[in-house]
Design goal:
CATH superfamily: HUPs
Number of helices: 7
CATH architecture: 3-Layer(aba) Sandwich
Number of domains: 1
Helix content: 40-55%
Oligomer: single chain
Strand content: 5-15%
Largest sheet: 5 strands, parallel
Distance between the termini: 45 Å
Strand order of the largest sheet: 3-2-1-4-5
Number of strands: 5
Structural class: alpha/beta
Shape: globular
Length: 175
């Protein structure tokens, strides 16, 4: 089975990659995280994803698109809806790419994070799968949280301090 793994960052993709490979799945990464703020943070995460992919010998497709204005236009009036928009936009993109490039299924390293709304992500992934006509491979990668942290530190990967959008940056640093 060939799976396209949406890769939000290098550290969060390590455990999902290891898990999927242990199941005999051929994994290609897909970096598309258009609303990371500021741009320097976006670049650090993109570069860390590439570093991890190189270290783990994982092919990585990078959609080097930074669309802060589009993100803000879609969530500024109701910032509390931002996560749903963020999940949907990323998962729609990976599902479309998986379908277009002939993968059997897609999934996301977002399912590794303890801090994400797991149920909402799953719903958005299932909607993307139905819309694109491709299988969403569901896995709850959260049990590997500590293993992923340990491995990312050993690998010297850049580890971010907040989810990624301008609102999560504010929540992290304006306390």
């Amino acid at each position: 089975m060939r799976v396209l793994l949406h890769t939000c960052c290098g550290p969060c993709a390590l455990y999902p990659l290891m898990t999927l490979r242990s199941e005999g799945i051929e994994v290609t990464g897909f970096f598309y995280n258009h609303n990371i703020h500021p741009y320097q943070e976006f670049a650090k995460r993109r570069d860390a994803a590439q570093q991890m992919a190189d270290q783990e010998n994982m092919p990585l497709i990078i959609r080097d698109e930074y669309r802060l204005e589009e993100f803000l236009a879609n969530v500024a009036a109701e910032p509390d809806t931002r996560c749903g928009y963020c999940y949907a936009s990323r998962l729609d993109a990976v599902a479309a790419a998986a379908k277009e490039d002939g993968f059997d299924a897609f999934t996301s390293s977002l399912f590794y994070s303890r801090y994400q709304n797991h149920e909402l992500m799953r719903k958005k992934a299932e909607e993307a799968a139905e819309k694109q006509g491709i299988l969403f491979l569901y896995r709850d990668f959260r049990p590997g949280w500590q293993e992923g942290i340990r491995r990312s530190k050993e690998s010297g990967l850049y580890r971010q301090q907040y989810c990624g959008c301008i609102y999560s940056e504010k929540e992290r640093y304006c306390r």
